[in-house]
Structure formats: structure tokens, C-alpha cells
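Researcher: We're reviewing a set of sequences before deciding which ones to prioritize for further study. For each one, I'd like a predicted 3D structure that I can look through quickly. This is Poly [ADP-ribose] polymerase 12-like. If possible, include the structure in C-alpha cell form so it fits the rest of the review sheet.
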Amino acid sequence: MSAYEGLSSRLRTALCVSGGSMDLDVLGRTLGLNSEQLTRLVEEEEGRSIRIREQEGKRVAVYQSELRVCSERTRKCAGDCGKLHLCRYFIMGSCTRSPCKFNHSVQTPHNFQVLRQHQLEALGTKVLQQLLLQNDPSLLPDVSMRCGS
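Model: Here's the predicted structure for Poly [ADP-ribose] polymerase 12-like, in C-alpha cell form for your review sheet.
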């Protein structure tokens, strides 16, 4: 693993375990980088694994991932989708089905392979839930067009 790959991995982990985002100054200190090194890292990663946004007058790095949940919800999927096979409500922390017919484990062989492809296999379930909620548009609530303003 090159020094850059190691730094990229540390960046991903730092952002994911902090809820998916972090103030750039705090991120630099967390990774042990000076301002020049942090600037180079941001230039390299922005648009690929992070977005930079302004929040309360500060620049914040937000982790972005192509990791998604299978829209077929494992019923029709042949397993070659490259997406996680998980219960949508489990990810949102609100599955009340007992027993639920959808998967609640990130450790199945399929899910582990998908996580490995995204270099996220070392993250815990709660961190992955946050990451998915932050990045997967299919997990957003449906918007009703009948609501009046």
C-alpha cells in the first residue's frame, strides 16, 4: 500500500466514524497533516471521495460513496448488482418486522464482497448505516406532491 493509499484510507475512516463529515481544520489535525498537505489531499480527493461545503462559516469535508442498497430488495436480484442486500428499514434504524424477510446483516458473503469493493469492509454497522443514509438517494423518504404549503 502506498503512502497516499494509506492516507486515503485514513481519510475515509476519519470521516465515516465522525458521522460522515468533519471540519477541514479538525480533519487535518486528526490526520496529522499540515495545511499544505491537507490542501493537496483535498485537491486529490474532492469529487472522488469527498465534497467540500460551507457550513456555519467553515469548510467541511463530507464523505461521498457510490455504495448503494439493491433496489430489487433481494427478491429478484441475481446477486450481481454490486449493491448491498439489506432491509431499507434496518438501515434507517426502524425495522419493526419480526421476523423480517429482508437481510439485517452486513456480514453475508455478498454484502462483505460489496463492502470490500468500496474499501468499507472494516466499518461497523452503525457507521455504514450513516454512510448509506448520507449517500443513497433511494433511502430518502418519498415526497408527496399532494401536501399543500
